[in-house]
Every structure is written in C-alpha cells, then in structure tokens.
Amino acid sequence: MTYIIIIIIIIIIIIIIIIIIIIIIIIIIIIIIIIIIIIIIIIIIIVITVVVVVVTIITIIIIITIIIIIIIIIIIIIIIIIIIIIIIIIIIIIIIIIIIIIIIITTIVVVVVDIIIIIIIIIIIIIIIIIIIIIIIIVIIIIIIIIIIIIIIIIIITIIIVTIIIIVIIIIIIIIIIIIIIIIIIIIIIIIIIIIISIIIIIITIIIIIIIIRSRSSSSSTITTIIISSSSTTIIIIIINIIIIIIIIIIK
C-alpha cells in the first residue's frame, strides 16, 4: 500500500511539473505572439504613414504641376490674343490705307487696270490674313495637345507610383502573415513535442517505479536497476529516479 501511495504521489508530482512546464511554455508563447502582433501593428502603422505621406506629396506635386500648366496656358492664350489683336489692327490699318489709295487713284484716274490691280492686292491681303489666322489656330491647338499630353504623363506616373506602393504594402503584409503562420506552426510543434516527451517521461517513470517495487528485495539491486534504466533517459528522468531512490531508502 505504501508503494502504491508513493507511486501515486510521484505520478502526481510529475504531472504537476509537466503541467507547470506546459503553462510556462504557453505563457511564453502568448507573450511572443503579443510581441509579434505589436511589431506587426507598428510596421503596418509605419507603412500606412509612409504611404499617406508619399500619396500626399504626389498629390501636392500634381496639383502644383496642374496649376503651373494652367498659368502657362493662360499666359500663352493672352499672348496669342494680344498677337491676334495686333495683327488685326495692322491688317485694318493696311486695308484702310489701301482703300484710301484706291479712292485717291479712282478719283484721279479711272482706269480699269488699276482697279483690277487694287482688287488683286486686296485679295492677297485677305489671303495673308486668313493664313495668319490659320497658323495661330494651329499653334494654339498644338499647345493644347502638348499640355494634355503632359497632364496625361503626370497622371500615368502618379498611378504607377501609387500602384508600386500598394504592391509593396501587399507584399509586406503577405510576408508578415507567412511569418506569423510559420511561428504558430513552430509553436504548435513545440507544444506537441513537449506533450509527447512528458507522456514518455511519465511512462518511463511508472516503469522504473514498477521495477523498483519488484526488485525491493535488495537495495543495491534496486539502485543499480534505477541507475541502469536512468542512463538511457533524459536529465529530468535521472533527477526523478534519484528522488525515488531516496524515498525508497528512507522507507526501508
């Protein structure tokens, strides 16, 4: 009966030790997971902050660029309008001079040839005016096309930059998730190994105790059996065996 009580006590002690070890490991694992989560949150906050800053800078650059482009367009349009007005004024002055010359010529000499020449000159002047206006319109169209192309290029560059940033963020998050999964798998494996080792320790201890009980006829053989059986186990089992030997010696 005494031996049964000793066996039960020893088994209970071993189980308690194992439970304490498992609890300590679980606490350590929980602390590690909390630290990892905090680190991940910090990384995500930093990444989001960086993205926000980058996007803000890009937006400011785009806005400033568009404002500059609009100002340039307005200046160009004003210059073109001033040039057109000057050209029109010059043309009007030329036409007025021509008309005055025509009137003077027709009043002095009424010749059909002179009238034809004057008409040709007027036609040439009109053609020149039309050509100048067409050139001005073409220049304006080219300027507008160039401005549109610049704006499109800026927008495309912005989209590319933002896309790259988003891809980088996604990659970072995926890497973090993979790391967490690997850590959790490792933790689970460690816990399983600990549980298996604990079960093996319990089984080996019970076997040792049974051997001790059966060979209690001689103390020396008991001690030898325990030492022999202990030599193939871990340090924990050796310590437990030593405790068992001491208890048995005290009881005997």
From TrEMBL:
Identify the taxonomic lineage of the organism of origin: Eukaryota, Metazoa, Spiralia, Lophotrochozoa, Mollusca
Its name, as the record gives it, is Uncharacterized protein
Keywords in UniProt for this one?
Answer: Membrane, Transmembrane, Transmembrane helix
Q: Does the keyword Transmembrane helix apply?
A: yes
Transmembrane annotation, as ranges: 6-27, 32-54, 60-82, 87-109, 115-141, 148-174, 180-213, 225-251
Superkingdom as given in the UniProt entry: Eukaryota
